[in-house]
Amino acid sequence: MQLDLSADQVLIRDAVRDLCAREFGPQASSWDREAVVPRQAVARLAEQGFLGMAIPEDWGGVGYDSRTLLIVLEEIARVSAALAIMIAVHNSVGALPVFRFGTDEQRRRFLPRLVSRELAAFSLSEPGAGSDAGAIEATATRTEQHYVLRGSKNWVTNGEQAGVYLIFARTDKAVGSGGLTAFILERGTPGLVVGKAEDKMGLRGSDTVALSLEEVKVPLDQRLGAEGEGFKIAMSMLDAGRIGVAAQALGVMGAAFEESVRYAQQRRAFGQPIARQQAVQFKLAEMERRIQASRLLIWRAAWLKDTGQPYTREASMAKLYASEAATWVTHQAVQVHGGYGYVKEFAVERYYRDARVMEIYEGTSEIQRLVIARSLLKDGVKV
Amino acid sequence: MNPDILTASAGPSFDLTEDQQAVREMVREFSESEIRPIAAKIDETHEFPLETTKKMAELGLLGMFVSEEYGGAGMDYLSYVIAIEELSRVCASHGVIASVNNSLVCYPIMTYGNEEQKRRYLVPLARGEWIGAYCLTEPNAGSNAANQQTTAVADGDDYVLNGTKLFVTNAGPSDILVVYAATDRALGPKGISAFIVEAATPGVNKGKKEMKLGIHASDTREIAFVNARVPKRNLLGEHNKGYGVALATLGGGRIGIAAQAVGIAQASLEAAVKYAGERRAFDRPIGEFDAIREMLANAAIEVDTARLLTYQAAWLRDQGRPHIKEASLAKWHASESGTRCANWAIQVHGGYGYLTEFSVERYWRDARICEIYEGTTEIQKMVIAAQVLKEHALEA
Q: What range(s) does the Acyl-CoA dehydrogenase/oxidase N-terminal domain occupy (chain A) (predicted)?
């Protein structure tokens, strides 16, 4: 057992924290209010190598392990959960699968762009296929030189501005999830129609779109992995994606907590700071409890991943607990702020809205419980 | 190897040392073979388990973190926590018997005792030849422990103790007591001193055994002190510095109680998962219903978060770092996790969960005390909030 960050991790965390506080913090509210994608912030993060966190240095990335990557995501989420999800999706489920499952030729073609300037998007969900990924209907029909993709995709984070899309479609209609195949698509490919950004409750600074696949011709060499391997590729990314969301949740609740502690000491009622009231103190204590428990679950899952041990159950636990903790903590942060928590001048109402989606995307809470319970029943209780 | 391993792994890691794993294996085997067969029976009879307590002593479980020089096992705090967890997984009464002797009796003597006190008292306590008990709580001093009514008045070579202590764990079999008393009542918490008292001292009167909701096999009594003469050489730590001894002791004790709760939560989860896989309803194992799965998944998260927070506190303590907040977080969280997991375990078992034949109702009764003793949940929240406000204090 060892719970200290490494010296490198401390340096990286402090650098990201400083960058976020100085450059992004002052703007995060306006990204939310105006639903503007923070391209400039992405470019700044790209300059520092944060688009290549999951890619080894040999391929132009910075080669962080999972724990370090999550520490970065947490820090970004402290100022903007929207920016954090863009970076998380790009690194964990956008660029990484290209490295992990791509041929050397695909790596050479796509990774240099992805580690330096272009965002990647991951497109699995459909209007009729969310939690049940086996129900995907988009098809990929093979011709001599191409696959022809047809169908509709939903909830594509980074979808408006991505340079590269990972798209999952069915090459075999007969065999459920075993008939899925992954493809790497370039932005601007004829027939890849990007819908307009969804108008969301939270994460308003991140672009979420629907994609329409209208007879998209995809060259054979842009298939990622083998035919029928798509579900495996998608699933192998999900666990890492889930701890990424957990880290995002951790960042948001950390920010909500700190602002609540500060406000509770400044705001006076009945002749003293409200921080002297037990009712308020207990909220702060409970925030601290949920934050620490979340952090330990996240670090444990990441440590398992980094040391090559199975971590599916633990990733689901981290994602489920941290997302629900974030909703709870941000809710209470609004409560501590009273009426001021309900107005946009204070950031806690944004945190509250942003946190809510974390119980939904990358596997709803219900799916996480299913994953955990199945694992318990199949493999038994650990320790 | 995992292809995602990109750099030499560093930073937070959660593996246990070989010694820590060996402690878990040893205590689990002991608990399964020696305690499991009697756990339900001593719950029913309220009998203090003298035999297995003696065996715990032989295994070094009653003085785990005391150095070998003073008769202990010389283990780190995390090993101790693992041992309490494993004992409590089978029988929470055994967990608290060991926890009190280690955390509340050996610890303060080891830390504040002089050489003579350590030779005379710590060695037999750590070896488990003598059983220790801790006397702080009084009828009017529970959460507000500083409100001590028991007095210790200097008289010649002795202090004379008068007063009544409540809820003393291990009271019946105890040989040695660590007793707190007011040496200067006008000074409040700054007028309290700690004493090592031999239970056989005239004027030390153990009351009758309390009948409790749970942890039936742990022996809880009132102890009255009526002109009990304690030699001055048995003053533990400095005169009027006893409250500090009590607080420092409870800081570690809380981690022990957290570990006890983790063990109960673990046992509850194991029972629930096993039963959900076996019991059939509507033509399938009930574990196939989301309603049951939700309880199992929630319980698994409770167990893991409770364990992680508890190990975190123990790890900090082993590093010699501040851990007041983390000990309280662990104690609060784990104790509630224990209650919740035991409650779910009963629910998954349905009517059978309400029968003593299945152990989950015992887990439920045993878990409940963890939210109360060694600082109620409310006290833990006060401690945590005070630390949080200190850490985040606004600059003047």
A: 7-118
Sequence letter at residue A342: Y
Interchain CB distance below 8 Å, B392 and A285: no
Amino acid found at B360: V
What ipTM was estimated for this complex? 0.95
Q: Which residues of B are catalytic?
A: 374
CB contact under 8 A, B277 and A377: yes
| B141 and B158 inside one domain | yes
CB contact under 8 A, A320 and B297: yes
Question: Do B148 and B192 meet the contact criterion of CB atoms below 8 Å apart?
Answer: yes
| B135 closest CA partner among B100, B94, B98 | B100
Are A236 and A374 in a shared domain?
Answer: yes
Digitized pLDDT (tens) for each residue of chain B, 396 residues in all: 333 444 445 899 999 999 999 999 999 999 999 999 999 999 999 999 999 999 999 999 999 999 999 999 999 999 999 999 999 999 999 999 999 999 999 999 999 999 999 999 999 999 999 999 999 999 999 999 999 999 999 999 999 999 999 999 999 999 999 999 999 999 999 999 999 999 999 999 999 999 999 999 999 999 999 999 999 999 999 999 999 999 999 989 999 999 999 999 999 999 999 999 999 999 999 999 999 999 999 999 999 999 999 999 999 999 999 999 999 999 999 999 999 999 999 999 999 999 999 999 999 999 999 999 999 999 999 999 999 999 999 986
Kindly state whether B12 is in contact with chain A, defined as any CB-CB distance less than 8 angstroms. yes
The residue among B305, B311, B335 with the most chain A CBs within 10 A of its CB, best to mutate, is: B305
A residues 163-182 lying closer than 8 A (beta carbon) to B: none
How many CB atoms are located within 10 Å of the residue B213 CB?
10
| Three-state DSSP state, A297 | helix
In a domain, A2, yes or no: no
Alpha-carbon gap: B15 to the closest alpha carbon of chain A (Å): 5
Q: Which residues of A touch B287 (CB under 8 A)?
A: 373, 377
Using the Cβ of B320 and the Cβ atoms of chain A, whether some distance falls under 8 Å is answered with no
pTM given for the model: 0.96
Please check whether residues A341 and A364 belong to one and the same domain: yes
Taking contacts as CB-CB distances below 8 angstroms, the residues of chain B near A54 are 4, 6
Q: Tell me whether residues B394 and A265 touch, CB distance under 8 A.
A: yes
Q: Which of B195, B225, B242 is the last residue of a domain?
A: B242
Examine the domain organization and report whether B220 and B249 are in the same domain.
no
Residue B253 and residue B157 share a domain: no
Which chain B residues are closer than 8 Å to A285 by Cβ?
332, 380-382, 384-385, 388
> Locate tokens 């791509």: which residue?
A102
Whether residue A114 sits in one domain with residue A160: no
As a whole number of angstroms, the distance between CA B165 and CA B163 comes to 7
Q: What angle do CA B270, B274, B277 make, to 5 degrees?
A: 145
- For residues A124 and A167, give the distance between their C-alpha atoms in angstroms, rounded to a whole number: 6
State the Cα–Cα distance between residues B16 and A381, nearest whole angstrom.
18
Query: Is there a single domain that holds both residue A298 and residue A195?
Result: no
Cβ under 8 Å to A: B residues 172-211: none
Q: Are residues A364 and A237 in the same domain?
A: yes
